[in-house]
């Protein structure tokens, strides 16, 4: 079965979209095709993949979720838009500001199940799906992604935002599983994100708390280091794998290890 990886935290600024883009770059390095789905109306993931607002495709994630599929599978392929030339092999289901309207969509048929049905058959063998979720507590967009995903990764900065974002994300994931909406959804773990070098009292305290509270779910060995190069590649809308040097290698290695933990084979 193709993996569909959701990247989720209920706090912004914890490196969620950066992780989604990093996983996309790592998957392409493995020569896997990627379906990149952006469910955040801010469109950060979409923009990093080289699709700007004035270049938005005619058919977006908003349109896909507004459709009543009536049992038809694979409709996501109609929303695929190629990423920029810097991201070959990546098809984007783009976000737009109007996607926020789906949160108040009073539809008769469950909107939350539409993405899973739409992706069925659209992600081919040898491909992986990566979904960037909005940083909010539940809601239809978050639930749609969690129902469609096979795995979810929670990035957490080692500060109070990271701690709260991880705690609340796990509560929402538990609800989705307990309600039977996606009982097989696997939490890969909580990944320390944008981790500064050296020691600090807060970093050590939050890391210790996460380890004590969540045990094996806290993946300290998969920490993503903080390097300014990551912001440079984001601004340039190019994958981290296109950069050179020790910082690029450290980030690439971190994303690659996380991809493996999510069950994506070489």
UniProtKB/TrEMBL annotation:
AAA domain ranges (all copies): 3-186
Sequence intervals crossing the membrane: none
Ranges in a coiled coil: none
InterPro entries on file: AAA_dom, DNA_Partitioning_ATPase, P-loop_NTPase
UniProt signal peptide: none
Origin: domain of life: Bacteria
PANTHER family linked: COBYRINIC ACID AC-DIAMIDE SYNTHASE, P-LOOP CONTAINING NUCLEOSIDE TRIPHOSPHATE HYDROLASE
Record-given protein name: ParA family protein
The species this protein was found in: Streptomyces kaniharaensis
């Amino acid at each position: 079965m193709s993996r569909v990886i959701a990247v989720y935290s209920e706090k912004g600024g914890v490196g969620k979209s950066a992780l989604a883009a990093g996983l996309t770059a790592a998957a392409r390095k493995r020569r896997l095709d990627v379906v990149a789905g952006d469910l955040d109306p801010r469109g950060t993931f979409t923009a990093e993949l080289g699709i700007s607002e004035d270049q938005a495709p005619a058919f977006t994630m908003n349109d896909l979720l507004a459709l009543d599929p009536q049992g038809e599978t694979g409709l996501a392929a109609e929303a695929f838009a190629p990423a920029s030339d810097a991201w070959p092999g990546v098809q984007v289901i783009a976000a737009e500001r109007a996607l926020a309207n789906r949160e108040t969509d009073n539809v008769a048929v469950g909107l939350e199940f539409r993405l899973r049905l739409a992706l069925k058959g659209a992600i081919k063998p040898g491909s992986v799906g990566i979904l960037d979720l909005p940083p909010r507590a539940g809601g239809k967009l978050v639930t749609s992604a969690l129902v469609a995903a096979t795995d979810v990764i929670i990035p957490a900065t080692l500060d109070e935002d990271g701690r709260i974002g991880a705690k609340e994300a796990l509560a929402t994931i538990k609800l989705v599983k307990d309600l039977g909406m996606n009982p097989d959804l696997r939490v890969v773990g909580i990944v320390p994100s944008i981790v500064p070098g050296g020691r600090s009292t807060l970093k050590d305290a939050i890391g210790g708390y996460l380890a004590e509270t969540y045990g094996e779910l806290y993946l300290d060995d998969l920490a993503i280091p903080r390097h300014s190069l990551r912001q440079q590649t984001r601004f340039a809308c190019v994958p981290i794998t296109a950069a050179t040097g020790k910082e690029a290698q450290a980030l690439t290695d971190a994303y690659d290890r996380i991809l493996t933990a999510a069950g994506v084979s070489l």
